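It is worth pausing here to work through a concrete case rather than discussing structure prediction in the abstract. The textbook approach is simple: state the sequence, then state the predicted structure, then interpret. We follow exactly that order.
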Amino acid sequence: MIKGIYAAASAMMVNMNRQGTIAHNVANLDTPGFKDVMLPMEDFLYTGVAHPPGPMSGSQRQAWIGSLGLGVESLPEQIDFSGGAFRVTDQPLDFAIQGEGFFQVETPSGVRYTRDGRFDRDLDGNLVTIDGYFVLDNNGARINLPEGDISFAADGTISVAGTAAGQIGLAAFTNPETELVRDIPNMFAAAGGPTGDNPGFIQQGAIEMSNGNAANLMTQMVSVTRAYEAAQRLVQVQDELLGRSIASLGNFNA
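Step two, the predicted structure:
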C-alpha cells in the first residue's frame, strides 16, 4: 500500500514538471527560432512480488506473482530541432536559415548557436543579435557593417554600398539532439565544434518562428493535467485505505 502511494506521488511530480515544460513552450510560441522542449519519462523501478513474502525455510514454497512498479521518473529533457514556419518581414537585417544550420554568436560565455535571425547594427557598426551578442562569420570573427545601403548574397555575404563587408557564418551538427544543450535564452551550447557539412543557406527579409504548435501544446497541457489529477486521487485513495488498515489492526489487537 505504501508502494502505491510512492508510485502515485512520483506520477504527480513528473506531470508537474511536464506541465512546467509545456507552459514554457506555450510562452515561447511567438519567439523567433525557439525550439520546443520535451520531457520524456520512464518507469522508475520494479520489485518482485511473491507470496508469501519474506524468506522461506524448510518445505515452504513461494508463488511468484510478478513485478510491481514503483512509479515513474523524468528523463533528461530533449529538444525538438525541427524547423519552424518563416515570417516575411522585409527587414534587411532579418535572416532565416533554409536548412539545419545555426547562426554563430559570440557571448560572454563563449560561442553559442541560435536560429533567431533578428539582427541589427550596434553603435560601432557590428552586426549583433536582438540581445546585443556579436554575430560571427565562418572564421569566428565579428562582422562590421559601415553605414550605407545593405545588400545580401545567397552565400551569406553582406555588402554595404556595393562593397563586401562580411559573410554570416553558419554551423551544422550531425546530431544536434545529442551535441547541443540549452544555454542562455533561445541559444544552444556545444561541447565541441560544428560536426555537420550542410548547414543550408540564408534567406534575407524573413525570420523563422517557433516550431511549437499551439493546438498540440494545449492538448498536451489538458492531458498532463488530467494525469496529475488522477494520480492525486490515487494518493488520496491509498491514504484512506492505509488509514482503514491501521484502524482495523488496532481493533483486532484490542
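Step three, interpretation. The first strand starts at residue 37 and ends at 38. The mean pLDDT is 87.
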